[in-house]
Amino acid sequence: MATSTRCSRRPPRGAPSAPLLSLVLVGIFLLGCSVPHALCYVRPPARANIAVSLAVTDINAPQQVHISMVGADKMRVSWITVASVSSTVYYGTSPGVYTSSASGSSSSYSFLTYTSGRINNVVIGPLLPSTIYYYRCSNATKEFSLKTPPGQLPIKFAVVGDLGQTGWTKTTLDHVAVSGYDVLLLPGDLSYADNVQSLWDSFGLLVEPLASQRPWMVTEGNHEIEKVSTIESFRAYNARWRMPYELSGSSSNLYYSFDAAGGAVHVIMLGSYTDFAVGTAQYNWLIGDLAKINRQTTPWVVALIHAPWYNTNYAHQNEGEPMRLAMEGLLYKARVDVVFAGHVHAYERFDRVNLKKQDKCGPVHITVGDGGNREGLASAYISPKPAISLFREASFGHGQFNVVNMTHARWTWHRNSNDISVVGDGVWLTSLFSTPGCF
């Protein structure tokens, strides 16, 4: 059952003054907010962009460090340097004591008049599960640390989309940092660079404190396309955020899958902005990927997309419909448990659905495009609220998907309420593999 939440009586900074409050509340009601506390929660105002810069005193120093999972026991360490350095990572389980090392490669890319620094990628491992490793990139003196995900259940995922780099982004990241998550899942729209390549550098610096400590697994959104003249799409995204697509048999960094918790959870990262129609490479790959899953050992299957297939917000209505028509049947037949999406700058949780109707064997669709981007919240909802939409709210925040065991998982959505993380929605989910009549 959904968690009931008392609404905060203290409005966030920048809330409307008392004479305007009644008009704001009426407007919220007319826009379709339907949760019990909606009439006493005031939407937070926008916050300014953050431009993170680094005074480079050492051209060999690593910056924008982030890590991602590569198979069951390895991690990719990615970082950027001004100068060309040895792409080597030294690591061990004690601070300052490095018992192992691994080497990789580096590259750079150009975008109009911009040329990136050297983007280094090194895969380290094998690594032990649930273990803290200390590491150093190349010959730099700064030491980083990471914690590997658990090799079995339980496992906690942080789920947040459409991050950007505003004051609200910083608040969201602060809340994620103390959540105790093992792996972060991001369904697209990372930096909102939108062709201004220096903003990719700023974003990398902003997220480094988190992304250097826990694996971030991402897929692309529309703001990653960055198509200009003859420049191919996704140039910066593919160069900076390389995912382990080859291991899942994918031929593109724009869609892939990976296992977590010793294979108990299978995560499918789909590409909303590359070909997905019947017969395309992504469609055929998805068929093959789903066919490999053994639900006896992998009871939980989760998919991520950017443009939601189910959406009762006026923003981006029906933009995910072509992909839904092409792929929903595949996910339904495979009994995918949850589909996370971004794109719409608000939060919404649906019932288990298929073909736009409630279906006990369909996935739960959840939109979490509320990370804190500069474009602001999407607060206009279709009214009356369709019955399949169980909770919707236009607030910044993030989600936590805690897979407790083979049969049950806890989902909670955490609203950024005046810089305090408040649980606004929560539900216990039962895996479809253990749901009578679905297998």
TrEMBL record:
Keywords of this entry: Glycoprotein, Hydrolase, Signal
Pfam families from the UniProt entry: Metallophos, Metallophos_C, Pur_ac_phosph_N
Keyword set includes S-adenosyl-L-methionine: no
Any one GO molecular-function label of the UniProt entry: acid phosphatase activity
Domain (Purple acid phosphatase C-terminal): residue spans on this chain: 362-422
Cleaved signal peptide residues: 1-40
EC assignment: 3.1.3.2
Protein's UniProt keywords contain Acyltransferase: no
Ranges for domain Purple acid phosphatase N-terminal: 62-146
Known catalytic reactions: a phosphate monoester + H2O = an alcohol + phosphate
Residue intervals of the Calcineurin-like phosphoesterase domain: 155-347
CDD domains: MPP_PAPs (cd00839)
Top class in the EC scheme: hydrolase
Similarity comment: Belongs to the metallophosphoesterase superfamily. Purple acid phosphatase family.
Record-given protein name: Purple acid phosphatase
Organism: Spirodela intermedia
